[in-house]
Structures are given as C-alpha cells and as structure tokens.
C-alpha cells in the first residue's frame, strides 16, 4: 500500500476537488458516497429495525431479493437523481436502466451499481459491499438507456464501499486507486491511502471449491497446482470483501464459468468491470480466461461473466490453464 495520508485531515470531497481534472465527475462520486453512508447506517441497524431477511420478490437475476437490496437500490437512485450530471442509473436490482436526464440536460455520466453485494450474508453479520461503475454518457447513436452498454475499458471511475469492521471506500480513476475510511463521528470519508499498488504475486487463491466437479479441467489442474505449492485459501463468499483482501494482500479471486453456469455467476457490468478496473489501476489484472474483462463487449445489461482478478502473475497462472 502506498503513501498513507493521515498527517492531514482530507475528506473525499476535498481530495476529489484537488484533482482538477475530475471536473463534475467529483459530484457523481460524492453522490454515490452519500448513498453508501446512508446504506451503512441501515446495515448497522438492520436487525434492530427488522430489515433483515428477504422480501417476497425475485429480481431480474432470478434471485430472492433481500429487504436491504431494495432499500440500498432506492438510496442510490435518490442520490444520483439529485446529481445534475448523472444521465442514467443501471442497477443489479432493476431490469431496465433509470433514465434521469439526457446529454442536452447535462447528463454526462452513466452509473451502474450492485447496490448491495453479498446481501445473503447480512443476517450473519458478514461484510457486504456496494460496487459502482461510472461510464461517460457520450455514445453518439445510443439512447441514454443504451449508453450503459459499453466495454469496461471506457470506465472513467469505479470502486466499492466495504461495510466491514470499518466502512471503507476504494475509488479508482485514471489517476490511480485511493482509499478512504468513514469516520462516523464526522460522517465523512477520510483519505487514508493514495496510489494503492498491489503485489504482482502472492500465494493466496480465493474460489468456492464446492463447485470443483463443475469446473473446467484446466481450472481443476490449477487447483491441484495450488494445493501442492504452498498456497493459502481464503473465501468469504462476499465479492467486495474477497476482492478488497486481494487488492491489499495480493493473490487471485476466481468466480469461473461452470457446467451449470457457463458464463459464471457474477455480472459483467456492475461486478466484473468495476473490480477489474480497480485491479488494473492498482497494477493488477482482470481476466475472463482467454481475454481481459475490460475488453468484453456487452450485449445485455445483466449478462454474466467469468471473473479472475488479482495479482498479475496469479491471474496469468489461472488464465493460461482455462481453455
Ligand atoms: P449479490 O449478493 O450481489 O447477488 O452477489 C453475491 C455474489 C458475490 O458477492 C460472491 O462473490 C458470490 O455471490 C458468492 O457466490 P457463491 O455463494 O456461489 O460462492
Ligand atoms: Mn453482487
Ligand atoms: Mn447485489
């Protein structure tokens, strides 16, 4: 981890505005950050306010929605609608994007989000997260709704908030990856590290080995390799937590294609792309096996993708074995 910036007291807003090149992208990031502060408050009180558990509804993913999935999604939408430069919001929890304003009305950015990732872990108090991706709304021929269907390499910002033992925001832009921690007494995300750069290799692998028999033979070969070469296994089952550990300590997080899920479980636009962008901006990598996650040309908003993200040499070890 690079320079830890605690000698100063620098809030997210001050740090974003110090980067003059961000322009009104700073407002978009602050709107997302506001939503995550509200989500953090809901999560801390979830069992007290009885917003634990599922509602009687299945979302577009075919997954039972948790009460907090819906609450988090609504909070993100309310904050983005208040931000003049957000054109459209596409969410894991909504079938179609919410068009807020077009380019002529100042809608310069598309925001995509998994408003609550790992939500099935809420009732057992395991860390969960919010993942976000920001794309420019500059597709000449696309409607505002279709502006979200861009490859991940077009992202101008991406990151996540981890609701864990502390609430932290990791933000990647073209200038690198910075980390902030929420000081609940101030209600501010305070800058704690800039220019994060991850180790190029580390013997930690993170995968749900319960699906071993459904993995590609090459991936099964990789697991034999790691079992015999001094690797440690870590799997939390909450993507934001697993990816954050990988960013800070190195290693590789894998959610691959399986015979039952030929394109994997995780979604390209608001899980694979933002996490791959964070990793690449921190000197790591993000692969689907044969190619870079950020180069995948999306066809549908909710399409799924294999995800192999982490230290460059570890991602390569996996990718070269997968057909
Ligand atoms: P979400 O809660 O947004 O649907 O995402 C859950 C994902 C992700 O957080 C995690 O990496 C993965 O589900 C775990 O899946 P398995 O339980 O199949 O390992
Ligand atoms: Mn998710
Ligand atoms: Mn989710």
From the structure above, extract its key features.
323 residues, alpha+beta, Fructose-1,6-Bisphosphatase, Chain A, domain 1, D-Maltodextrin-Binding Protein, domain 2, 2 domains, eight-stranded mixed beta sheet, five-stranded mixed beta sheet, 7 helices, 24% strand, binds 2,5-anhydro-1,6-di-O-phosphono-D-glucitol, binds manganese (II) ion
Structure, explained:
This protein is of the alpha+beta class and 323 residues long. It folds into 2 domains: 12-193, Fructose-1,6-Bisphosphatase, subunit A, domain 1 (Fructose-1,6-Bisphosphatase, Chain A, domain 1, 2-Layer Sandwich), CATH 3.30.540.10; 204-322, D-Maltodextrin-Binding Protein, domain 2 (3-Layer(aba) Sandwich). Helix content is 27%, strand content 24%. The protein is built from 7 helices and 15 strands. It has helices at residues 12-18, 25-44, 67-81, 217-227, 239-249, 268-281, 312-319; strands at 54-58, 64-66, 86-91, 98-99, 109-117, 128-136, 157-163, 167-173, 176-183, 188-193, 204-206, 232-233, 252-255, 285-287, 307-310. The strands form 3 sheets. An 8-stranded mixed β-sheet has the order 4-3-5-6-7-8-9-10, sandwiched between helices. The protein has a 5-stranded mixed β-sheet with strand order 12-11-13-15-14, with helices on both faces. Helix 2 runs antiparallel to helix 3. The chain is globular. 49% of the residues are buried. The mean pLDDT is 94. The site of one manganese (II) ion has 4 residues, from strand 5. Residues 63, 92, 114, 117-120, 208, 237-239, 255, 265 line the site of 2,5-anhydro-1,6-di-O-phosphono-D-glucitol.
